[in-house]
Amino acid sequence: MTRSDAGRGGAFLRPPVVEMVGVGRSFTGPPKVDAVRDIDLTIADGEYLSIVGPSGSGKSTLLHLLGLLDRPSAGTYRLDGVDVSRLSERQRSQLRGERIGFVFQAFHLLPHRSVLENVELSMLYGRIPRRERAERARRTLERVGLAHRVEFSPQTLSGGERQRVAIARALAPAPSLLLADEPTGNLDSVNADAVLDVFDKLHMEGLTLAVITHDDDVSKRADRRVRITDGTLSQVVDHPDVLHDVVQRPHALGHRDVDGVER
C-alpha cells in the first residue's frame, strides 16, 4: 500500500515532517546575495529525499534552514507541524536537538572516547534519562551494524565504520528527520555503498531522510530527487511515466524510539 492509497481512506495519513512555502534566504553583503529563493518543499513522513546540485547552488544554505541552524529571510517553515519562525533561539535549539539528526561529510567523532561514548554524548542535553543513554546507544549501534565495535576507539575503525558511528549518534535521540550533507564524500566506493545501504535500511524502517549531495549516484538511492540550481528547486523526473509514491513502511506511522516504541 502506498501512502497515497492509505490517505484516500483517511487512515495512516500523517502531516509532512517538512513544509517550506516561499522560503528565501538573503545576505545583505555588499553585494546582496539571494542564496535561496521561493523554495516550496514538502517532505512526507517516512520519505527518502535527495537534494542534488553543484557547489555554490545553495545546498548548504538550504541545509542550514532545514536544520534550524539559520532563519529564512522570507516564507514559512513548519517542522513536524511547528511554525519555527515563532520560536525563540532557545526553543529552536531544543526542537533541533529533539527532532533533527545530522550526518556530515566529516565524522566529527571524539578520538579519545569509545564508540559507545560518542553515541551517548548525542543524548547529553536531551530529555533522555541518564540511565537509559548507554542502552539506547547500544541498540542504535546494533541498528547500524556496529554492535561488535562499541568499546573500540574511533581511530581504529575504517572510514565507513566511523560514518556509521556518526549515523548512530544522529539516530540515538530518535529524531523525526535525518539530514545528511555529502555523507559519502570522504569514503571510497565500497564504504560509500555500505553507508547508503544503512540509509536504505533506515528508510525501510520508516525514518524520514533528506540527503544533500552533488553525486547523482548517491541521489538516485532516494524515493524522490530535487535539484537546486542558483538557489531555486526543480523536480528531477527519472521516469516521466511513473508516479513515485512514498511506500507505507513498518514503523512509519509514528515517531518511534530506537526500540520501536511509538512516541
How is this structure best described in words?
- The chain is an alpha/beta fold and 263 residues long.
- It has one domain: P-loop containing nucleotide triphosphate hydrolases (Rossmann fold).
- It has helices spanning 3-8, 59-66, 89-99, 115-120, 130-143, 159-171, 189-204, 216-219, and strands at 18-27, 33-43, 48-52, 74-79, 82-83, 100-103, 177-181, 208-213, 224-229, 232-236.
- The protein has a six-stranded mixed sheet, sandwiched between helices. A four-stranded antiparallel sheet has the order 2-1-4-5, covered by helices on one side.
- A hairpin with a 2-residue loop joins strand 9 and strand 10.
- The longest helix has 16 residues, at 189-204.
- The protein is globular.
- 39% of the residues are buried.
Protein traits:
263 residues, alpha/beta, Rossmann fold, single chain, 4-stranded antiparallel sheet, disordered N terminus
Q: Tell me the span between the first and last alpha carbons.
A: 23 Å
How large is the share of residues in beta strands?
Answer: 15-25%
Summed up, the helix count is: 8
CATH topology: Rossmann fold
Q: What oligomeric state do these chains adopt? A: single chain
CATH superfamily: P-loop containing nucleotide triphosphate hydrolases
